Amino acid sequence: MGDELKKLTHFDGAGNAIMVDVGDKKVTRREAVATGNIRVSKEVLEAVVNGTSKKGDVLGVARVAGIMAVKQTSNLIPMCHTLLIEKCSVDFEIEEERLEICVFCRVMIDGKTGVEMEALTGVSVALLTIYDMCKAIDKRMEIGGVHLVEKHGGKSGDFVY
Question: For the whole model, what pTM was predicted?
Answer without folding.
Answer: 0.89
